[in-house]
Write a structure and sequence with these properties.
single chain, 341 residues, alpha+beta, Heat Shock Protein 90, 5-stranded mixed sheet, two-stranded antiparallel ribbon, 10 helices, 7 strands, 61% helix, 13% strand, rod-shaped
Length: 341
């Protein structure tokens, strides 16, 4: 809690518990004796002294076993001290300010009850306000630590998504350059765009959906170089994708997984991808064929890449997404739905 809000909290407390109860004396409808004003002024001074001595000198960590007895003794000691001090002040006010004879001044039972009430009230109020401020600051620190941890984890997960893609592309590029293929310059440009996206654009929490789609298209084209199969991937985009934001490199692990485990040279298209946006909702659907007689076990269905995607989705879209992965015959199907981009 900032110093400004702590200051406002203290001011509000004293207006409510010190100023408001004394309004009848500030604007009296009847005349009070002068010594009564002296007593009220001294009592308010003791209230302030009581409150801030407890506030600054007594800790609130009662849940720490080693300090329970110590703190309780401090609290009881503070209450007892201020009860006695208040009773002494009553004597001083009556004798020295009001002019009563010393022998005529008696501390009565109601005096003890009233001063005990004030001492206990302002001691407990000081501890309560201190507890509220400390609790708020602790929760704020926890939230900041959680946010920093979440940011660090997301950054780490982004770097883990697709480490071997670069090596495969460089191998393909080497082959094209070696053969003096006309496709080499185009591959270099696409690889440059992909690396720029991975190194710079993906540092943001979210990017424009259009940029993510462009990245996917370049990624697919570079992967298709290895297959030497035209139109192996069918990629359809439907809906209004303008001004929509998405976490960077969130969808590419699904495409990479389809290339990695998919059946090559089987059907065209071997991989079908459909991205549909309807209002704030995004549906991403990807299907690929598996090699004959080869099923995907649980570990293959997850994989490091898809496991990282799940972690990112849990952190960014908790409770507002669904991810279904299933195998039907020789077809592998992944469907991701995000309710609100």
């Amino acid at each position: 809690m900032s110093k400004r809000y702590i200051f406002l909290l203290h001011i509000s407390f004293w207006i409510l518990f010190a100023l408001v109860p004394e309004l009848p004396m500030i604007f009296p409808d009847k005349k009070y004796p002068l010594y009564y004003y002296y007593y009220t002024l001294c009592s308010q001074f003791l209230n302030v002294l009581n409150f801030y001595l407890v506030y600054f000198l007594i800790s609130i960590d009662f849940l720490i076993r080693r300090k329970i007895v110590t703190n309780l003794l401090k609290v009881l000691g503070a209450i007892s001290f201020f009860i006695c001090l208040r009773l002494v002040v009553i004597m001083i006010v009556y004798v020295y300010l009001a002019g009563f004879d010393y022998q005529e001044v008696h501390i009565r039972f109601y005096h003890i009850v009233l001063e005990s009430y004030y001492s206990i009230s302002f001691t407990l109020m000081a501890l309560l306000i201190k507890f509220m401020i400390d609790w708020f600051n602790t929760q704020k620190q926890k939230s900041e630590l959680l946010a920093r941890t979440k940011t660090s984890e997301l950054a780490l997960l982004r770097t883990q998504i697709n480490p071997h893609f670069l090596f495969n592309t460089l191998n393909n590029l080497y082959s094209l350059v070696y053969k003096k293929s006309d496709e080499a310059p185009s591959v270099v440009m696409k690889l440059s765009d992909i690396m720029r996206y991975m190194l710079y654009d993906s540092n943001s929490d979210k990017v424009m959906l259009e940029k993510e789609i462009e990245y996917l298209e370049s990624f697919i084209e570079l992967y298709e170089l290895r297959l030497k199969e035209g139109r192996f991937v069918k990629f359809d985009v439907e809906g209004d994708i303008q001004f929509k934001m998405i976490p960077p490199m969130l969808l590419v692990p699904f495409v990479e997984n389809a290339f990695k485990h998919g059946r090559k040279h089987y059907k065209v298209p071997g991989i079908s991808i459909k991205l549909e946006v309807e209002g704030p909702r995004l549906d991403f659907d990807i299907r690929n064929y598996l090699p004959a007689g080869l099923g995907m076990n649980k570990d293959q269905q997850g994989g490091i890449g898809l496991e990282n995607v799940r972690k990112r989705l849990d952190m960014i879209y908790p409770g507002t997404y669904s991810l279904n992965i299933e195998q039907t015959g020789d077809e592998y199907h992944v469907h991701l739905m995000i309710q609100r981009l």
